[in-house]
Design a protein that fits this description.
The structure is a homodimer. Helix content of chain A is about 30%, strand content about 25%. By secondary structure, the first copy, chain A, is of the alpha/beta class. In chain A, a hairpin with a 2-residue loop joins strand 26 and strand 27. The longest helix of chain A is centred in the first third of the chain and has 20 residues. Chain A is elongated, with a radius of gyration of 22 Å. The interface between A and B is large, with 55 and 55 residues.
Chain lengths: ~425, ~425
């Protein structure tokens, strides 16, 4: 039986595995995490709205009924193209077909020293760390006896005006303005300042310009200060330099950029500037038709330009890679990948969102309901959708956030 | 206004603060965690049944309406009895009355080197660590290619036959026998061995002897191997010595003993063998009537012997310490503490528990329903009781466990 190895259990990898459920193949799914993550809601874990298990499910639980797949918790260290073998945690996994879907992580564009001061958001561990950081900032503000220091603890800078940055900035502003009121005695959390800084001319550059403008207005209504054309030039423990200005702040969140996981390089294949692997029409590696790259790691093109790094695109690529393998097994040629763009969604806060479906564009409350229903719909398959709904209904009516638990040891003062 | 400092936001400290809600005092509650923890369900977080936020709530959220209390997230480093000042995170908190309720942590009785191999369970961080450990053990068993190593990864030793040890052992056996079936391809999780080892003659020694015997039988029915009169003599990374036998195992859980937090020593007061502070009749420190010690940290006595280290006792002590302060403020003498014993409960697994209410003793399904209703009742006040109920109903019907997410980096193979 043909051996298929899939690296990465995100949307691309998991959808590829599922698409091979009835195929006469032996699949090994390798991931360094034990769970599939519903990444579009990761910002909710980071901002204490949802518990980590509500948006993650063990890969082996999801795939327990698919008997042709073995799940391995291991980190891939090398891919031997000539020997058609994946090496992970000291073990060797020979393959006839390989799907690499190990995704992206945040990148600091040569400023790796910023990582310690400005954590990014890609994994559950990132989200829990970010949650502990911003909750601890309010605690430090309360215990500080120096006005300038209190100010710095109450200043939050979100770097990057893409969907993640917009979601984080909007939610942080809501928490400061609504969730935490009455809980502190020495500070007024409503005086917290949330800045969203974006190097480009507008936030949400992938959306239509009028939606960017609407998101900008909706954010400012929530209390976020939005600065466009504002490249960050330095980040240190207590300050950020944005263009020519120094902002004294103790919490910086990085939502500005991603780079492909190191496996792109392990494939020894041509990559683009962000480290994404340049793939052929059918998502296979030029020269190695038995290797496919899917999801955010792949630099693929659709009719309207590059395929965006969003969950629906990753699912489509995963399914396509699986279909190509099925075609090859049947002796048919593989078809080229065609990306079907379904739209772009970004939520901003309670009743605030933007939705870009091409001709149909929504803003405000209507967009927010659209966003909510879409996400609940796509959470189906997760057992936690009911719990998520309860948490959201609770948050909507009361502004409470149920996961405001600092589990990491608190930072030194 | 009189200044009251309370150290510790557990059951004793939080109940003391609440009992002072209408008193003309200025309260400062200092805790090194930002949350109150519903400790009786901590084993559920450790065994992936509940998400961490479901059993914890931020102290400042619980106390937001009580305007006479300021919550400080800080670790107390010293208590200056002569200067009547608590020192925490570099700041000084002068007091007229002090309640120390900083609880206990697990202790290894002079074998501190065991700590790395046999984690204990007192905090949420402990629970998340333990969860990652036992889930990772099954992953390692699946990827191991050596039969002896697989066996060791599938052997779990719980040290200590008190309520926590019984709960952990019973739940681990259930997970292996029911939750994880069908999810692995190379191992059968049902072959996992769970041992509960207890140095004394019977498990649950605080319960009536017939209940100990019932718990023993109920555990064995769930698949746990119970060994009494089996003191542990050494714990290393890959083996445990119990009496004269060597057990090869990779997962050891410590539920054998607790010692008072270091603050007992910081008070420079007489302590018992476990480091608990010897308090007077009214829970105050002999020679320092303005200092009270409450909860697990206090070595107090009731009519029937020492007061047990359980949540109801801690609440009663906290309320009593507050009442003593109110009496002193009113110029009245403080009353002696009288412990009202309400009973002992321990759950073992699905439909299995023991309840000791003195004359009334329950076992099996009836005891389990009693335990369930008591815990749901006492979770009231936590917003998460609905979420907990859903998780439990789900677990009861399907044996699923919703929080099977490994967030820590996985252990090296």
């Amino acid at each position: 039986m043909a051996r298929v190895v899939v690296v990465g259990g995100g949307f691309a990898g998991l959808w590829a595995v599922r698409a091979l459920a009835r195929a006469p193949v032996e699949i090994t799914l390798i991931d360094s995490c034990n769970h599939h993550l519903f990444q579009p809601l990761l910002y909710q874990v980071a901002t204490a709205g949802l518990a980590a298990p509500s948006i993650a499910a063990p890969l082996r639980h999801i795939l327990r009924r698919q008997r042709n797949v073995t799940v391995q918790l291991a980190t891939v260290s090398a891919i031997d193209r000539a020997g058609r073998t994946v090496i992970a945690a000291g073990a060797r996994y020979p393959y006839d077909y390989l799907i690499v879907a190990s995704g992206v992580s945040h990148a600091y564009f040569g400023h790796e020293d910023w990582a310690g001061h400005a954590p990014g958001l890609k994994t559950l561990a990132d989200a829990l760390h970010m949650r502990a950081r911003f909750l601890t900032a309010f605690e430090r503000a309360e215990s500080s006896r120096c006005a300038a220091e209190t100010r710095a603890w109450l200043t939050f800078v979100v770097v990057g005006g893409g969907p993640t940055g917009v979601e984080l900035a909007g939610t942080l502003a809501e928490i400061a303005r609504h969730t935490l009121t009455r809980e502190f005695r020495r500070i007024d959390p409503r005086t917290a300042q949330v800045l969203l800084v974006e190097a480009g001319a507008r936030i949400l550059p992938a959306f239509a310009p009028d939606l960017s403008a609407s998101a900008h207005r909706q954010l400012e209504r929530l209390g976020v200060t939005v600065r466009t054309n504002s490249p960050v030039t330095s980040i240190a423990a207590t300050e950020v330099r944005v263009a020519d200005e120094t902002i004294h702040c103790r919490t910086v969140i990085w939502a500005a950029g991603v780079a492909a996981s190191g496996l792109g390089r392990a494939l020894a294949a041509p990559v683009d500037r962000a480290g994404r692997v340049l793939v052929g029409d059918d998502l296979s590696l030029p020269g190695s038709p038995e290797i496919f790259v899917a999801g955010d790691l792949a630099a693929a093109s659709g009719r309207g330009g590059p395929v965006p790094g969003i969950a629906p695109a990753a699912k489509q690529m995963g399914v396509h890679a699986a279909a190509c393998i099925l075609a090859r097994l049947a002796g048919r040629p593989s078809a080229p990948f065609r990306y079907r763009h379904q739209g772009l969604l970004a939520t901003i806060g309670r009743g605030a969102a933007v939705v870009d479906l091409g001709r149909v564009r929504l803003t405000g409350l209507v967009a927010w309901w659209f966003w909510l229903l879409a996400h609940v719909y796509f959470l189906i398959g997760f057992r936690n959708r009911l719990v998520v709904l309860i948490d959201w209904a609770d948050a909507y009516w009361t502004y409470h956030r149920g996961a405001r638990i600092i589990v990491e040891p608190s930072q030194p003062p």
